[in-house]
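Example record

The entry below shows one chain as it appears in the dataset: sequence first, then structure tokens.
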Amino acid sequence: MWWMLWSCTSPTTPGTPDTGVDTPLDEIPETSSITVPHMDGDAWIVRTTAGIPYIYASTREDLARATGFVLGVDRFFMIDMERRLAEGRIAEVLGDSALAADLEARGIGMSRVTDQLLLRMQHDTAFAGVFDAYAEGLNAYVSEVNANRLPVPSEYAQLGPLIGHPDPKTLLGPFTRRDMAAIGATLIYQLGFEDEDLTRAESWAALDGLFAGATQGDLRQAGAEQDLFWRVEPVWDVSSAPGFGTAGLRSAPTPPRTPARGPLRVERQTLARLTEHTSHVIRWFGKDRAFGSNAWAVDGAHTTDGRAILSGDGHLPLSVPSLFYQVGLDTSVLGDGEISQVGLAIPGLPMMAVGTNGRVAWSQTALYGDITDWYTEELTLDAEGRPASSLFQGEQRALVGVDESYVIANVPILGSIGRTETWTRYETFDGRPITQIEGRLAIDEPPGPGEVEINVLGERIVPGDVDGDGRITAISVDHAAFDDGNLMLASDGFGHATDVRSFREATRRNVAYSQNLVVADADGSILYTGYQPVPCRGYLDRQPDGSWADGANPQLLLDGTRYRGFSIPVNPDGTVDESHADDPYRCVVPFDVYPQNLDPEQGYVLTANNDIGNLATDGSLTNDDWYIGGPWVDGYRAKRIDERLAAVASTKTADIAAMSDIQADHRSMVGEMFLPPLLAALDEAERVAGGHPAPGSSAERMAAIWTNDEAALTEVRERLVAWQGRGLWARSGVKTFYADPSADDVQDAVATTLFNHWISEVVLQTFEDEGLPYLWWPDVDTGQVRALKSMLDGRDAENSSGLASWDPTHQESVFFDDLATPEVETSDELIVRALASALDALRAPPSGPGTGGFGTDDMDQWLWGYRHMVQFQSLLAQVMSPDDDFGFLIDLFSITPRELPLDEGIPFDDPRAVLPWFPRDGDQMNVDAGDPNFTRDDWMYASGPVFRMVIALGPDGPEGVNVLPGGQSGLVDSPHFADQAALWLGNQTLPLLTTPEAVAAAAEERITLHP
């Protein structure tokens, strides 16, 4: 095994070196000693329970070298892919199959952001030296592999021979400073890059005239636009800050406004091609799945012992290995440095992402800020047919061509022939990358005389006027990180803050960070802030009512013939320069205006991707003095967290255990909201079945459904009413090594199955018959529950929800009527019909292991955990699919019941024997996120809490816990590949070790790195 190999082949004799420093760590037996070039002195890597390293060095540079080395051991493949992704160099490994991905990455500006970060490093040579040292540590690991003292990373060991590298060591290239910047660029794009403007624009255009000739088409058209597409107010009115600034000022409420509808300004297939490509990018970053997080803090005056508490659980792909890496970093024990941090790092970067330095503790969630704009362009071609210029304010402005080379590996098994290709990508006069150009596909019709073939995001196009409107259109993009990248400098500042106020000041460097931050300090104070520089966008025109003018809506496509790109000005020290308020293209939303919450009277702050400052709660994102972004998720998690925090804060019972318990909360908030109207519809069906409904009426159809399956419908009602009475806990009900369900848990599991199948059918039957394009922001589930809630609440004579789709004849939304039938269905009929459909699906045979129905009428067998399972998929799933040539590697490097059997002695005829993943509690929008989406067949989920961290701070130092489901190591034969997944499944954690004494007590080995 690799860890034994490391110990047995150390190039020097293990011992206990005399460092001249008397610490408890001296007593730990040294297991190996490694020579690392450029080290200034010795550094110690002390591995503890679960393989978690605590790293001690005398200088920051040596700390970075040691960190780079140990991350190379555990996560080299992951780090390698991060740099290759941003640099557009994956084809150097995988050949032609990855060339499109490389062109996409460079085409959307990732290499440009890499160069901006590199330039920022060069402004601060001391800080750049830390990154150089980290790269040296990675390179020292590569040297150890090349010398056969450490094994090749598991992924390359398996992949190498398949792609023509019988010696996989040849795939391990050295790291440079630019590679480090590229890893930062990958993080920036994961945190803040978005393509929603594109998908909104495509959907907004698709809505135009969608219901022409349809039954009640005018109501459906207005409803699709106003009730579904532009509705932004959250279901739950829970905000992280009261309003703008720390004073919490709020704008006066105004009626929702439907933006102006103008021409699309770009050929439709051009837009469609681009959205397909950007969807690939979103998939790389795992943002095609549930992408959220929870974080909160309780101040010292409201906890059990006066210590402030920070809690964080990031919701990202539950990949293997984890997107984070738990580590301790210290320069105070072996030197006189100030670094003493414990928490989670991003593999590839030498600073802490979330964690504590003993004085402050912090965590973060996705913000949904708007720092990306997309523009329509009008191009002219030169005599050879190449893009030459774009129209801006009546003048032709020359495009900038950038020639870039792509190295494609020779991979015979994939038919890839080794070569280098050079392609030109284009930028506007002000530096915005051209991401798609109108034209025909060269594969369909090669270029003729006066034409040329270009490559845009991996697609070979012959530019031209395809739709015959006399224009050649294109789409460009602007992003906050294009101007001056300093995310790594900003993130480093968090770990050196001394209290929440100095932490708040450190956020002034947060260019393109796009994260909510929650902070606690040792003095008992707490802070919420989401600050990042957002362009004022004062150059964009508005209509008299304040809504965006045609072509000026930053949530759609901006008119690039009228508007150029914004700039984020940055001072030499990396802080945002706010001195350009009079320049609309360089103005940013002021720091002191941004919604923030410091030491509120209630004693806690929280963020769960909910509204950041009551910006959308009035139904409008355009009536505020400043536009920041949004809409946000509907606050289901925030509402539940708020309830539970209010309870513990008021009774001063907040401690680490209580915070962990809140993180594991599985109360069905969707059940709380929607079960009452669903049960009321079932009661109505029973009532009309006992009477004499009019022939052909909705009531008669409801009565027929009730009569046809009365026993089962009655049983469903009884089970769900009992579930309500027990607290609406979404339980798995399946016995495993990490769960031993009670009798009530089993009954709750059946009820959870019934409710989720029922509500999913209600959602799908309400919206699927209209043939709607994608209308849901910021995600499908949020948009659908927001719309459904308003429609159910609006079933009255007053149209109390203000629905544009409200039908005065039936006094409810027309969307409840099934457009595919001649009858007019009511909401109650649809709800009852949905339950009948759900029961048919549940009784049906399974469609595969863990999918489909249960093949029985016995509801006691319908346990939620047999269908609701968590997947720990290999990180490879984000860059390839099971259908790819190397898709089999996804399973090879995933954590499944093969590695962690569900229980001992499971008989072959037990339903658990065929489950492909892990049964879990939870349902849609739980605090402990396990969202399966509203679906009919596949209830599994692969995104959720990638860590569960709680830290208490006080005068005696920090104390905390954490767990990483993806484990510390990416090596499949490591004992720390799947060990934390076993803990995570049972909502268990490991202690964060915050003192040398605690580290020494838990030590399992000590490695010395020396010059």
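Notes for this example: The first strand starts at residue 30 and ends at 35. Residues 95 and 409 are 4 Å apart (CA to CA).
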